[in-house]
Amino acid sequence: MNETAPRTRVSARIASITESATLAVDAKAKALKAEGRPVIGFGAGEPDFATPDYIVEAAVAAAKDPANHRYTPAGGLPDLKKAIVAKTFRDSHYQVTPEQVLVTNGGKHAVYNTFAALLDPGDEVLLPSPYWTTYPEAIKLAGGTVVEVFAGEDQGYLVSVAQLEAARTPQTKALLFCSPSNPTGSVYSPEQIREIGCWAVANGIWVITDEIYEHLTYDGVRSVSMPVEVPELANTCVVLNGVAKTYAMTGWRVGWMIGPRDVIKAATNLQSHSTSNVANVSQRAAVAALTGSLDAVNEMKVAFDRRRRTIVRMLNDIEGVECPVPAGAFYVYPSVRGLFGKTIRGRLCTTSVELASLILDEAEVAVVPGEAFGPSGYLRLSYALSDADLSEGITRIQKLLGEAH
C-alpha cells in the first residue's frame, strides 16, 4: 500500500511570508482605539490629510461616466500613462514614453510586479538596511535571495559603494534603492547616487529605485532620480512611484513602474492575469492629481516639516534615545539601544520589539520596532499625524522612558 505525505493546507511559498509589521501595528492600534482606549498611532505611513478636493471632484465625475464602468487596458488608461510621462519629466527630468509605464494597484503592486518580472530562483538582490518591510517579502515571492547591506545611524543610514561591492557575488542580479527612505527618512546626495549608479552599470546590476517620497524633502535637500544622474543605467533600471504619499491618496491604490519596454511588457502580461486594470475611478483621480497644481502638496510638506522638527527635538530629550534628523519622507528612526538592559515599570527591555510592546501597553502609543526593517535597536515613528496627537504621543513616551533605570 502506497502512503503519501499529507498535503499542507497553505503553500510553503505563501506560508513563508512575514506579515506587514507596519500594517499589523496600525491594525492593533485601531482595534484598541475601537475599544475606547486612547491609543495614538505612529505606525502606518499615511498622511492625516484628506485627498485634495479637486482630485475627489474628478473621481466623482468619473464615477458618473459610463466609460469608466467597463474594463480598460490592463496596463493603465492612456490618459494616465501620458500624465505619468509628463509628471516624470516635470519632476525629475527623466524622459520616458507611455510604453515604458505600467499602472499598478498601489506602490506595493509595482514592487511585486517588478521583482516577478526580473528575478529567477537563486538571483540575489542587494537590499540596503534598514528597509521597507515589504521589499524582502516581494523578493522572496519572486524566488530571489535577499542580501542585506546594513548602514547604521553613524552613516546616516546610507550604504556606501564599498559595502555594496563587498556584498556583490556572481549571483547578484539587482539592487533595491530607496531615496528618500522609508523607514529612515535619509536622502542620498546626487554625488552618492551617481557613484552607486555608475557602480551598478559597471557590474551589470539592475537598479530598482523607489521614488514615492520624491516631493518630501527638507532643509534644501534635493531628491534626484538615478537614471537621470546616470543615463547609461536606463536600460537596466525600473523606477517605482505612486500618488499615495504625495497627494494623501493611500486608499486610492494607484502606483506605477517605469522601465525598459520588454520588462514593462512582461509585467503588464502578468498583471493582465492577476488584477487586470486598476479601478478606473482611481485612475481618473490620479490623472487630476498629476496634472493639477502642487499647492496642496506644498502645504502638506510645510506641516510635515514642522512636525519633523518637533518629533526629533522631543525624542532627543529622552535619555538613551538618539534620533538623527531625517532629510526626507515623514519618518524618524531613532536608536533606542541606550535603553537596552534597563528596567521600565518592572520590565527589562533587551530588544526593540520588547520596547515597542512596553510603549503600547504602558503609554498607549503604537510604534514599529526596528526588527521589521532590519536589526534590532531602533524604532520607526511616522510623523504623518496631527500636531496635537504627535505632541501628546511623544510626551507619553518621554514620561514612560524617563522611568528607565
Structure report:
- 48% of the residues are buried.
- With 405 residues, this protein is α/β, with parallel strands linked by helices.
- The strands form four sheets. A seven-stranded mixed beta sheet has the order 2-8-7-6-5-3-4, sandwiched between helices. Strands 9-14-13 form a three-stranded antiparallel beta sheet. It has a two-stranded parallel ribbon with strand order 1-12.
- Strand 3, helix 6 and strand 4 form a beta-alpha-beta unit.
- The model has no long low-confidence stretch (mean pLDDT 95).
- 40% of the residues lie in helices and 14% in strands.
What is this structure's SSE topology?
Layout: H1 12-15, H2 21-34, E1 40-41, H3 53-63, H4 78-92, E2 101-104, H5 107-118, E3 124-129, H6 134-141, E4 145-150, H7 161-167, E5 172-178, H8 190-202, E6 206-210, H9 226-229, E7 237-242, E8 255-258, H10 261-274, H11 280-291, H12 295-316, E9 331-332, E10 342-344, E11 347-349, H13 352-363, E12 365-366, E13 368-369, E14 379-382, H14 387-401
Properties at a glance:
three-stranded antiparallel β-sheet; 14 helices; 40% helix; alpha/beta; 2 domains; single chain
Give a quick rundown of the structure.
The protein is of the alpha/beta class. The chain has helices spanning 12-15, 21-34, 53-63, 78-92, 107-118, 134-141, 161-167, 190-202, 226-229, 261-274, 280-291, 295-316, 352-363, 387-401, and strands at 40-41, 101-104, 124-129, 145-150, 172-178, 206-210, 237-242, 255-258, 331-332, 342-344, 347-349, 365-366, 368-369, 379-382. The model has no long low-confidence stretch (mean pLDDT 95).
